[in-house]
Amino acid sequence: MKGFPVRPVPSESVSEAAKAVARRQAEQLTLVRRRAQPAAVYITRMTLTAVFAYLLALQLPGGSTRSVLAPLTALLVVQATLFHTIRSAVQRVIGVTTGVLAAVAVSAYVPFSWWVLGLLIAGTLALGLMLRLREDTLEVPVSAMLIFAVDSHAAATSRITETLVGAAAGLAAGLLFAPLRVQPAKDAIGDLSRQMADLLGQMADGLADEPDPRRAAEWLDRTRALRGEIERVDDALGQAEESVRLNPRRLRYPNPAAGLRDGVDTLERAATDLRVLARAVADSARLDSGDSPVKDPETRARLAAVIAELAASVRAYGQLIEADPEPFSAPSAQAEPALSVVLEDHLEEAQRQQDRLADLLAADPAERPDGWPLRGEILAHVDRLRNELQPRYPAQEATARGPSRRLHHRSRTAPPRRGYRTVLRSRAGRTAARVRARLRA
What we know:
Blueprint: H1 11-27, H2 39-58, H3 69-77, H4 82-107, H5 114-130, H6 139-150, H7 153-177, H8 182-206, H9 213-244, H10 260-286, H11 297-323, H12 337-361, H13 372-388, H14 394-401, H15 418-440
């Protein structure tokens, strides 16, 4: 911090801390390495779909015994989720039909030549772009060239019908085999919460003695590494949300992925609060002054107690999301009462420990000009982290989010939501006001 006497940290120490973090990250399991279907199941599903499409095509009148267009279409149509399978089937049928009709119309009036072929390709590509067929845009000129080259109405009819058969086989496979990818997303959220809880627990244990600046810097580096883990969890959650759309298996559950987005958003904000808390602790450890908040053993012990309760709260929150993605949708339900009680107990104890910490951190800025800002920062970040984990029941959610909330998958490159920034600013203002009041007292 500018104007603070900071104890210099040797470059060798920083390098060793960075290497330790890199080794730890290499040893950790990747959060989203679990696949919804193993390779053997994938091969079996695709093979059965293609063979089924071929057998259906054999039933067509006048069909060839060696036609592979139907199984080829079935293989191309089948996607990871039922929603994408339906979209791919519709786009492919539209692309093939458009290309065939364009070729039939051109061949009826113009003989085959190189310049006609070029105009046909350009025109069908323009049609594919106008129809917004995306990755299936090339189906339009490919189908047009094949039919234009043979100049046969029978070939045109066969291509359309076999494409329809292949698309139907792909849709049937999607209905039968498309998995719900909700459980991998739950597992990823649980792994993320355990990583955050373990880091908080190590910070609490490390505060038993005056923390070394190198160790405090390592905590900060690990909190920054959580950004990549959150992105992987966000990818797994996006796959879960896509797998639920139009999937008949979701009829057995109200909405298997409904509450997971709220859980990920909460853990993402909590990870941000954890990072700035680790930054404040690292700055305090580097502060070469007796006014540093982590120099006093009693203050350090009280801070460790608060962080330990927050670690237990994060762990309980992750277990609650894994067990039930909407744990607070019905407070009277008996689905996971023990986990809800554990979370609330740890948060209440964290509140009590935080109040005692506030009394120890209270200081006159004139008497302790060096460490006074860090004391306020630590208290504010602890308070924000605890508030993020507070359970929100339906009445609170309706007030905070409005009458309804649509399922969505927010891109990582999208700018932050304006409403979210407003909530953060108002929450930060309230927290700062409470901290100033306690410090003045």
